[in-house]
Amino acid sequence: MTLAQLAGQKIYAFGDSLVKGHTLKVGMIDQAAANEGMILEKYAVNGATIMPTQPNDHSYASDNQIPDVAAQIKLAPAEAPALICFDGLVNDASIGLRLDPIGQLTDSYRGGYDLTTPYGAFENACAQFRQKYPHTQILYVANHHIANNPLALQDQMHDLALAVCQKWSIDVVDVYRDGGINTNIAQMAADYSYNGEGSDRDGDGTHLNAEGYAKWYAPLIEAAIERHFS
Fold it and tell me: Which Pfam families match (predicted)?
C-alpha cells in the first residue's frame, strides 16, 4: 500500500487516555490520522495500563475493570487495519504498579512472558499485536515527559519499551526523546495541557490539549507513516 492509498484506510489505536483523549476526546493520534485522511478507530481506554491490574491497584474499584492493552487487542476486530498505533506504561508508573522487579527481555517469540513485570507485560502486548495482525505496520508512540511521574522512572519505562519494540520490529515514534514537549516546564504545561472539563489549558502536564497534540505529536507520527508508506 502506498501513501496515496492510505486515505480512507483504518488506523486502530490502543492504550490509555493520551490516545483516547481524556475529557476533550482528542488524543495523540487524532490530528495525524485526519491529516492523512485515515479513519481512526480507538480501542484505548482512559486509565489503561500495560500490566494487568489487580484489586486495589487503582484508587477506585471500578478502574480495575479497565482493559489493559493486551485485553484491548483481544476485544478489537479481527479485520486488519492499514496501521496500528499504541502507547502505554504511563498509568503503570503513575498508580505504582508492581514495577520491581522490572523483569527482562526474553529471547522467546512463543509466549511465556511474565505479566507481573513491566517487561513481560509489554512483551505480551507486542506478541498479541503480531499474532493477531501479522501483516500490519505498528507504531509505538513514546509519550512526552510528564510532570507527575518521577523522571528516573519515566526513563526506565521508556528504555524498556524501546528494547521490547526493537525485538518485535515495532517502530517507535519517540516523542519522549525527540518531540520537543516537556511539561515539567511550567509554561509548556500551562499552554498545552489540561486536567479535565472546564478548561483546555493550565493542566498538570499529563493530558495535552488539541493544540499540543497537533503541534508536538502529529508531525512525528505523520513522518513515521510517510516513511513506511512512501
Answer: Lipase_GDSL
Phi-psi region of 205 (alpha: psi -120 to 50; beta: other; left: phi over 0): left
For 157-215, what is each residue's pLDDT tens digit?
A: 999 999 999 999 999 999 999 999 999 999 999 999 999 998 999 999 999 999 999 99
Torsion sign (Cα): 177, 180, 186, 192: negative
Radius of gyration of the chain (CA): 17
Q: Which residues are paired to 39 by β-bridges?
A: 10
**Domain regions of the chain by residue span:** 3-229
State the Cα angle at 166 between 22 and 74, rounded to 5°: 50
Distance between CA atoms of residues 150 and 222, nearest Å: 29
Burial class of residue 169, CB neighbours in 10 A (0-12, 13-18, 19+): exposed
Our CA angle for 44, 89, 11, nearest 5°, is 35
Q: Which three cell numbers stand for residue 59?
A: 484508587
